[in-house]
């Protein structure tokens, strides 16, 4: 793998400066107490050209030598039942499961439980945060999106992409989900191999891939940024929406995503333990990312229009209203400059819904017990996931 010199080349760009002095970056610093500098840049920058070689070898040995469905069934068997002692199993597969079934010394299942409970008790705010801050905010980073464009994600459609993200997120954030052989563990391993499959396919078929500027496809540094989205950015979104978060829940949330990242093959030194570390890591990564390009705008509008395409809501006026509410949340959570770059439509009274939600959350947190909120949140999130899966698994839906 050819090595390139990586520099924080966008650190003097207007989009970078605005984000960290006026925008959400400034808010993240205030939120986390981060101390920003480029002192550790070189420790992280080499991961722009680093990939999950363990996952890649499994894909070469299993998926590229069999039908995809047959390979998937074989891997599912290993995930759910373990590797047979006497069977002939490729060394790459043994390496994968040796790593993912070894419980790290730092793992604390009680902390993971606290993190899962935060995700569940935040109910639909969790889903708003994922969609209107984490996902659409990620589209503002042009190079990060290139694997999506190379794998023709726009043709798949936003409903399908959102369904897959929701399926992954819900299944790794339930009770005991990440224990070996459980469903969250299974989703982490499958997602890891999907990333490897996509990376190897891009390198083989996408001749215009610009490794020097974009890094390796789905590289470890970009993976770090993605999972900071699920941890730090998600937490910040809940805070902005008026949710009260305990110190134990916050610590547990980062611990949960650190372990998910570990299962996904992200190097441990890239996985932050808290919001201060996460903000400092994120600062370095954003310095190599240009702002939105035309692909970013297409991805953002595809996600915005998902509400109109999705038949979960029966009537057109319901879908239009849902799209309006998501647009309101996007402006509130992402801020004006990012929304303008992504060409998010400006709508009247756009702060009304998010601010009302903040007030309701403050009251709700004081009146309803934590246990009740966890139970209701889990139920409501599972209902949304079921609706999405019913739609996307229908062969007539495109």
UniProtKB/TrEMBL annotation:
Domain ER-bound oxygenase mpaB/mpaB'/Rubber oxygenase catalytic intervals: 154-346
A molecular function GO annotation: oxidoreductase activity
InterPro entries in UniProt: Lcp-like (IPR037473), MPAB/Lcp_cat_dom (IPR018713)
Entry superkingdom: Bacteria
Pfam family, one: MPAB_Lcp_cat
Protein name in UniProt: ER-bound oxygenase mpaB/mpaB'/Rubber oxygenase catalytic domain-containing protein
Organism whose genome encodes this protein: Chryseobacterium formosense
């Amino acid at each position: 793998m050819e090595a390139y010199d990586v520099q924080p080349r966008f650190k003097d760009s207007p989009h970078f400066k605005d984000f960290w002095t006026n925008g959400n970056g400034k808010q993240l610093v205030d939120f986390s107490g981060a101390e920003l500098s480029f002192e550790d840049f070189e420790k992280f920058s080499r991961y722009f050209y680093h990939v999950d070689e363990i996952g890649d070898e499994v894909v070469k040995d299993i998926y590229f030598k069999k039908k995809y469905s047959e390979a998937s069934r074989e891997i599912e068997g290993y995930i759910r039942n373990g590797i047979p002692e006497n069977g002939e199993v490729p060394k790459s597969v043994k390496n994968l499961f040796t790593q993912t079934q070894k419980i790290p010394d730092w793992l604390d299942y009680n902390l993971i439980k606290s993190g899962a409970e935060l995700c569940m008790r935040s109910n639909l705010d969790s889903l708003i945060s994922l969609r209107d801050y984490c996902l659409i905010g990620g589209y503002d980073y042009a190079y990060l999106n290139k694997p999506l464009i190379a794998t023709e994600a726009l043709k798949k459609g936003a409903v399908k992409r959102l369904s897959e993200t929701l399926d992954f997120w819900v299944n790794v954030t339930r009770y005991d989900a990440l224990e070996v052989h459980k469903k969250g563990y299974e989703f982490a391993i499958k997602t890891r191999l999907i990333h490897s499959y996509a990376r190897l396919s891009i390198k083989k078929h996408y001749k215009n891939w610009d490794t020097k500027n974009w890094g390796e496809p789905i590289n470890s540094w970009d993976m770090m940024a993605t999972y900071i989205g699920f941890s730090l950015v998600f937490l910040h979104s809940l805070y902005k929406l008026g949710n009260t978060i305990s110190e134990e829940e916050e610590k547990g949330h980062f611990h949960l995503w650190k372990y998910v990242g570990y299962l996904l093959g992200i190097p441990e030194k890239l996985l932050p333990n808290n919001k201060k570390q996460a903000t400092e890591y994120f600062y370095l990564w954003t310095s190599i990312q240009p702002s939105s390009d035309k692909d970013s705008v297409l991805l953002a509008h595809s996600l915005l229009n998902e509400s109109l395409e999705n038949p979960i809501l029966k009537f057109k006026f319901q879908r239009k209203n849902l799209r309006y509410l998501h647009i309101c949340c996007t402006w509130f959570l992402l801020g004006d400059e990012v929304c303008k770059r992504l060409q998010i439509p400006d709508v009247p009274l756009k702060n009304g819904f998010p601010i009302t939600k903040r007030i309701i959350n403050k009251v709700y947190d004081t009146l309803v017990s934590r246990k009740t909120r966890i139970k209701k949140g889990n139920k409501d999130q599972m209902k949304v996931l079921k609706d999405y899966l019913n739609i996307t698994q229908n062969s007539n839906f495109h």
